[in-house]
Amino acid sequence: MLLYDSSTRQKVELPPPPGPIRVYVCGPTVYQRIHIGNARPFVVSMWMRQWFAERGYEVKLVENITDINDKIYEAAARQKMGSAELAEQAAQWYIDDTDELGLGRPDVEPRATEVIPEIVALIGELIERGLAYESRGDVYFRVPAYPGYGSLSGAQPDDMIAQEPSDLKEDPRDFALWKATKAHEDTEWDSPWGAGRPGWHIECSAMAEKHLGPEFEIHGGGLDLRFPHHENELAQSRGAGRPFARLWAHNGMLQLSEEKMSKSVGNIVSLREVLDTYGREAILVFFLGGHYRGPLDYSDEAMKAARTVADDFRNARLVIPTGAPVRDWDAFVSELDDDFNTPAALALMHEWRAAGRVDLLMRAMLLFGLPLPLHPDAPQEVMDLADARSAARAVRDFEEADRLRAEIEALGWEMQDMPDGGFRLVARL
Ligand SMILES: [Zn+2]
Asked: Spelled out in words, what is the top-level CATH class assigned to the domain 2-271?
């Protein structure tokens, strides 16, 4: 199986099954309902886990919830509520909303607040190695002391803009590992450098190692996190002597009117809103239609189109098999094994639907969390009407036959005349 590595910028062959494949994905920072763009890494990683399992891999997916972050303190202060309370509320919204996608949950969903001792220990190691220094209660990563900095994102140290300007830093490129408590912050933890709380980047280094070990196969997340967040995670963990992620799989951004959807720009649509308006199936079909690595344009038109496709798939049993040759399951496997090409897989699903190959379509849909509803047996009443219609047709009473067909349809069933002269009854779902 091939997967694109955004660090080496080429497709990389994964080790053969059973692997293992251990995956860490950066989840949301929780301070309000997540937007539809935040749902993309969740959906992509849940699908990939499903596909790895289908292909015989032992897979473990860890997707964190960032519950300590500057944005949480700021939002809590604006709303005049406790930051821990806001983070807890917003984490529950995230779980409720993503649950509704019907894809299950990651194997572990750690929170930053659960790994404070691990974070403090990791920062201690970095200080010992000369890669970090304390400065009036803050601790910073010493970027110039780590020669590999920039290897993931391709950014050159001297080109980098200052990360969070502060006169406590030795170098403007240095970034915070630990931050002393500030006036507007209402939570803090003890550390050898005084009361404070961790920086965002070190949280992920600690959570990944706690649940996957010092080395794992794939690190995922949105492309907007590659720099500085992922570059910093990598520097911290490699700097502390861990091999860390072997491959970086970044998903492209969701765009609204060709502009990246982000809370700071204000052009956001919440997942909750999209679920309520279009339903989970339309959301999943919408995501399937874009390659995970590319940008994807969100619009009402795109969602309506996705909903139509979802409806067509759900009613695939209404299509009379054509007997036309179609590509088989192996073609589907090849598309997904080649860097998880879901648009190509979706094209195959359309082909199968058009040909009435419900068997293949069902198998594919199940993998993406879109099970076709079970096909009910027609009730006796419908069966009787169908027999009566056949009898009417046999004596060429077409008026009566049409009337009976309408009656069958009014009951939610379609009577289809088959090429061999018989008929079948299919439910409209
Ligand atoms: Zn992260």
From this structure: alpha beta
